[in-house]
Amino acid sequence: MYGGRITSEEKSTLRSYIGVGIALALTAGAIYAFVLIQKEKRETTGFDPNRPIPSDAVIKARLKAAEYNVVRRGGSETPFQNAYWNNERVGIYVDVIDGQPLFTSLDKYDSGPGGLGVPSFSKPISYDIVVEKPDNSEGMQRIEVRAKRSDAHLGHLFADPKSSTGRRYSIPSAALHFIPKEDMKNKGYEKYLPLLDKK
């Protein structure tokens, strides 16, 4: 540099340094984004009983507003206008919060108009994974069903002679994610495939 002026050679070198700096910044950003995506994927794929339940803020950010309203505020959804009330595919239904398998398609049945227009199940995969407790809200006497691990509000339990167990678990679609049988292996639920063997 002479007399405060930058020579063309120095400009070229400066441009090279800036270009390398930008390339390094972009590479670092891409690696960081990849790591975050993989972390999110590990935290939301399959079911791991050792994975901690996310904070309420994380749950709210991950879930759709309707899902959060049901599982954390005990909300309801529009009868006969929700994702799974008439779903007849084979697979499992998992908790929207932690991915724990809760119900199978083998235990889903058509409960008719009395079924509240939401998915009806005769029983959960295991009675140990749900909590049943009295619910006297809204001037009614009902039994609320909650997921034991995530404490998600799942719906309500009713007596129903149409059910093979005499019990109807009315569960809003918004409390569940459905994993089709053909996707279970890729989504981390391979060990639950035997649940779908015909009884």
Model description:
The structure is a single chain. This protein is an alpha+beta fold. It has two domains: 1-44; 56-196, Peptide methionine sulfoxide reductase (Metal Binding Protein, Guanine Nucleotide Exchange Factor, Chain A), CATH 2.170.150.20. 27% of the residues lie in helices and 21% in strands. It is built from three helices and nine strands. It has helices at 8-44, 56-62, 65-73, and strands spanning 91-95, 101-104, 108-109, 120-121, 130-135, 142-147, 153-159, 167-170, 176-180. The strands form two sheets. Strands 3-4-8-7-6-5 form a six-stranded antiparallel β-sheet. Strand 7 and strand 8 form a beta hairpin. It is elongated. The model has no long low-confidence stretch (mean pLDDT 89).
- The average pLDDT value, as a whole number, equals 89
Structural class: alpha+beta
Q: Tally of extended strands?
A: 9
Largest sheet: 6 strands, antiparallel
In total, how many domains does the architecture comprise? 2
Write the CATH fold name of the largest domain: Metal Binding Protein, Guanine Nucleotide Exchange Factor, Chain A
CATH architecture annotation name of the largest domain: Beta Complex
What is the tally of helical segments?
Answer: 3
What portion of residues belong to β-strands? Answer: 15-25%
Q: Provide the CATH top-level class of the largest domain.
A: Mainly Beta
CATH superfamily of the largest domain: Peptide methionine sulfoxide reductase
In helices, the fraction of residues equals: 25-40%
Poorly predicted regions: none
Walk across the major sheet and give the strand order.
3-4-8-7-6-5
In angstroms, what is the radius of gyration?
25 Å
Task: Determine the N-to-C terminus distance.
Answer: 85 Å
